[in-house]
Specification:
Elements: H1 13-19, E1 25-29, E2 32-36, H2 41-61, E3 64-67, E4 73-76, E5 81-83, E6 87-91, H3 92-98, E7 111-115, H4 122-134, E8 139-144, E9 149-153, E10 159-162, E11 167-169, E12 178-180
Parallel strand pairs: 7-8
Antiparallel strand pairs: 1-2, 3-6, 4-5, 6-7, 8-9, 9-10, 11-12
């Protein structure tokens, strides 16, 4: 759902920041603000699990910073596109060069993670993937709870699908990170329902 705006008027990243102060959250796609729904519980469990695993490696190795859901990244200007991955990673070198912005990060993250929600369409997921990669994201993981897979994008021409039998690797982007895809979907504790 998009918010109403006057015809031929595009929203900027700076205007979007003030929109996100209300109850609804928005992303900006080519100047059009689009409301997003809160994530479901299963989605949150997977995001938290992957964030924790990544944070352990990133902090231990001093690689940079892991950013949680709702952190905006400016992917293009004129018209502006601002996306918020479920998990993002920015290298230490880039943080040292750019700093810690109060507003949105002015570039794409090095790693973006999108966890597919039940209401997401294939077209929406592919559109987000194209936005991330075209903006310079070096590694994108699209986690699908339904199929229990992770689609890994190193570019729009270098895409692989990992099943629970595979290992998810940070490659050169998050060097030293690796976890079994199956670990993302494990029960919360012994005897609890699986994700």
């Amino acid at each position: 759902m998009s918010i109403a705006s006057p015809p031929n008027t595009l929203t900027t990243a700076e205007e979007l920041l003030s929109l996100n102060r209300g109850l609804a959250r928005f992303e900006l796609v080519q100047g059009e603000a689009k409301a997003t729904s809160p994530a479901g519980f299963q989605h949150g469990v997977i995001v938290n699990r992957l964030s924790s695993l990544l944070t352990n490696v990133v902090n231990r190795e001093g690689l940079g910073i892991i950013l949680g859901a709702e952190t905006g990244f400016i992917l293009s200007r004129s018209p502006d596109t601002v996306r918020a991955p479920d998990v993002g990673f920015v290298t230490r070198e880039r943080i040292e060069r750019i700093g810690i912005p109060i507003a949105y990060f002015p570039e794409a993250p090095d790693l973006a993670v999108e966890v597919v929600s039940p209401g997401d369409t294939v077209t929406e997921v592919e559109s987000k993937a194209e936005d991330w990669i075209n903006a310079g994201t070096r590694l994108l993981w699209v986690v699908s709870p339904r199929s229990r897979t992770v689609t890994v994008y190193q570019s729009l021409a270098n895409i692989s699908v990992l099943t629970e039998n595979h290992v998810l690797d940070g490659l050169t982007v998050v060097a030293g990170f690796a976890c079994r895809v199956a670990d993302l979907f494990q029960p919360l504790w012994p005897g609890s329902p699986p994700n």
